[in-house]
Amino acid sequence: MLNPPPADRGPGEPGVSEPVIRVIDVRRDYPRARTSLLKATPPVHALRGVSLEVQPGERFGIVGESGCGKSTLLRIIAALDRPTSGQVVVEGTDITRLPERRLKFLRSNLQLVFQDPMSSLDPRMRVRDIIAEPLVVQGHPASGARVRELLEAVGLSADAGDRYPHQFSGGQRQRISIARALAPRPRILIADEPVSALDVSVRAQVLNLISDLVDELNLTLVFVSHDLSVIKHVCDRVAVMHAGSVVETGPTGQVYATPTHPYTRRLVSAIPTLPRALAGATTSDLLKGAAE
Ligand SMILES: Nc1ncnc2c1ncn2[C@@H]1O[C@H](COP(=O)(O)OP(=O)(O)OP(=O)(O)O)[C@@H](O)[C@H]1O
Question: From ligand 1's centre to the CA of 149, what distance in Å?
Fold first, then answer.
């Protein structure tokens, strides 16, 4: 079985109604280079008091155009960065104040898939070692059988393990990243624009693979995209971000059909019609076009 029911793997087993992730009034300021000797330069307010909750087994989307703070929020949820203020509670544990050595439980329970598989896969490593790496880092032996099982789960043949990342297409490389993320049997999968760098012809295949695996393995998914049509394909609920704030949250179908915030209405009205979608235009391309 790819992901048997987890044994005790850390504090805070999610209860029936306990959110898996709670983000509470999170702010993140980045210092900006000084431009004047006389006046202090104000920081970049990347997150301006973001709050949201993700329930167990939910597929939660975060959408917004470039620079609205999506990656900053994901990095804070994954404890790769700390907020300036506010709290993030994952599976009942406030991770924002924990020292690095106490974050071990999070490093196996929560895994990430990034936008560009080429830059997130070490070109000098064979695929089998790439997939086994998170297990080895956590001090677990990685068996050949487990690597083969993961390759099969993402639709790659067992002999793919002997090859190097450059010997695969973009879509296949993203499958390798997904296999690596699943290796430590996470309960939470975070995907940051996982299909944006892929050829439009393989995007749906990779989205369907993520969807199927989330169902099969009973994962909670947090999925970030600048493209509402991609979110609509995968997610049950969505938070719309604009300029460091969440401006609207709701079931994806409802937000899509009856958006309440003016920014969401702009996003929805810019969703590509079929011919433009086939030509590969994204919501953000179309928003740019509309603004020009
Ligand atoms: N390390 C940093 N130092 C200074 N400013 C930063 C840093 N990281 C992000 N920012 C700024 O914070 C804001 C939010 O950036 P972030 O990358 O989170 O947005 P995003 O929505 O993920 O955009 P994209 O989709 O283009 O990655 C932007 O104004 C960005 O320039």
Answer: 37
- Hey, what are 244's tokens? 């460091």
Question: Which 3 state secondary structure label does DSSP give 5?
Answer: coil
CA of 244 to the centre of ligand 1 (A): 9
- Distance, in Å, from the CA atom of 179 to the CA atom of 24, rounded to the nearest integer, reads 31
Distance CA 246, CA 260 (A): 13
Strands 93-94 and 85-90: antiparallel
Name the residue of 27, 63, 71, 241 to mutate for ligand 1: max ligand atoms within 8 A of Cβ. 71
Domains of the chain: 21-291 (3.40.50.300)
**Contact (Cβ atoms closer than 8 angstroms) between residue 112 and residue 181:** yes
Asked whether 26 lines ligand 1 (CB < 6 A), one says no
> Is 197 near ligand 1, meaning CB less than 6 Å away?
no
- pLDDT digit string (tens) for 189-212? 999 999 999 998 899 999 999 999
ipTM summary value? 0.96
Could you give the C-alpha distances from 267 to 163, 221, 248, 261, 270, in angstroms and in order?
Answer: 41, 22, 12, 10, 5
